[in-house]
């Protein structure tokens, strides 16, 4: 029989996991910003499933967490750009590993879900 789990096993960890900082859109936003600064309207193109309100909230949250910077230019019409900080860039490598794992195991995951759902309906 294995040892009981330690009640303090997460005591030294941050209160959140890195990919959850900013919400479920964070990883996709980081990916969109990997090649340099982007405007809000540019981000909306590949993130077509996100509402403008949720995108704005996600960007604010990511800025608060130090993942991105927001630069407003004094121009007419106004222009705002979002860019990854070094902290945000530090997630590119682990995210790439997660994507590679996903690609490698996607068929297994889908098969497991299908099997589970079939059993759950029985």
UniProtKB/TrEMBL annotation:
PANTHER family: TRANSCRIPTIONAL REGULATOR, MARR FAMILY (PTHR33204), TRANSCRIPTIONAL REGULATORY PROTEIN (PTHR33204:SF39)
PROSITE patterns xrefs: HTH_HXLR (PS51118)
Protein keywords: DNA-binding, Transcription, Transcription regulation
Provenance organism: Sphaerisporangium krabiense
Molecular function in Gene Ontology: DNA binding
Protein name, UniProt field: DNA-binding HxlR family transcriptional regulator
Family annotation (InterPro entries): HTH_HxlR, WH-like_DNA-bd_sf, WH_DNA-bd_sf
Residue ranges of every copy of the HTH hxlR-type domain listed in the record: 11-110
Pfam families on file: HxlR
């Amino acid at each position: 029989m294995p040892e009981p789990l330690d009640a303090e096993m997460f005591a030294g960890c941050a209160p959140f996991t890195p990919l959850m900082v900013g919400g479920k859109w964070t990883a996709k936003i980081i990916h969109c910003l990997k090649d340099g600064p982007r405007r809000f309207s540019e981000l909306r193109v590949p993130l077509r499933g996100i509402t403008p309100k949720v995108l704005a909230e996600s960007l604010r949250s990511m800025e608060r967490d130090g993942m991105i910077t927001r630069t407003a230019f004094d121009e007419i019409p106004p222009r705002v750009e979002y860019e990854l900080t070094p902290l945000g860039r530090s997630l590119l490598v682990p995210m790439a590993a997660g994507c590679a794992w996903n690609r490698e195991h996607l068929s297994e995951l889908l098969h497991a879900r299908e099997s589970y759902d079939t059993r759950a309906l029985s």
